[in-house]
Amino acid sequence: MVRGRYGEFKVLVDGEIVIDAGVRAVLGVLPSGRKVVDAVRARLSG
Question: Quick one: which of 11, 32, 40, 41 could link to 19 by a disulfide (CB 3.0–4.6 Å)?
Answer without folding.
Answer: 11
